Amino acid sequence: MPIPRPSQPADPSRSASPFFPSRRRLLTWGTLGAASLASAALAGCSDSAHAHTGATPGESPSDSFSPNATVDPNAISALPSPAAASPVAVRTKPVFKVHDILPNAPADAIALTIDDGPDPVYTPQVLALLRKYDIRATFNVVGIPGHAHKDLIRQLAADGHTVANHTMTHPQPLSKRTPAEIEKQITDAQSVIVDAGAPAPTLFRSPGGDWSPAIFAAAAKYGMLPIDWDVDPDDWKRPGVPKITEKLMAAKPGDILLCHDGGGNRSQTVDALKTVLPALKAKGLSFVTL
Questions:
Q1: Is there a contact between 128 and 276 (Cβ–Cβ < 8 Å)?
Q2: Which of 91, 154, 172, 282 has a Cα at 20 to 30 A from 219?
Q3: Residue 111 placed within a domain
Q4: Domain residue limits at 185
């Protein structure tokens, strides 16, 4: 079960349910190596206190996640291992606030984090909006769609966004995997991102905001800080543009915002960002990358 946030009590009606079952039915990724998960399913992120319970009925997945999407295990094993990173101190909790990771950031700083891509339909739309409003974000990339769309990873880096590690297959709950499986999820995704041409990530976000001592240890071993969030519009549920907009507009200085560009139909997220990005800037908030 994901670790509840101190500031947000767990919702038992959702935390015991499976994550995005509709996407699990849609995805078949094949074996990723002895320590990886066979036929793993991508699930969208949610608040640490709230497990995702399912996609909106009738949701159409993006081309990144076609019913027969697979990755040749030989292609993954052939990727160069990422350069050894200097380990960092093992944390006992993830980063929830901008100034916990960027103490010298402006007082009015907020960070937009975008999960589960890259996606060939929605990632370019998000990138176009970020360019329009001169905003840099942090993209938490999943290895499977990243391997299929390396050009988008390169574009993220070229546009000045931070590319972070979000595991290879987005397994949930990651905390239930063995230490070897957790490390494999991290190193496979790291290899995909580096092979695509982006800098080796120094940030790691666990799927669903699910953390454990083994996850913290693995992230630290590979030189990554664990990052979470504190503003979640639940855009993965497609609750409607007004609701997504309302939750994001409540952002305060220091907040880390969560949105999604992959794992399903993200048109509502894109439409909400069209309003939210200029409006938050107009409120005097400054977007920073983590």
A1: no
A2: 154
A3: yes
A4: 12-76+89-287
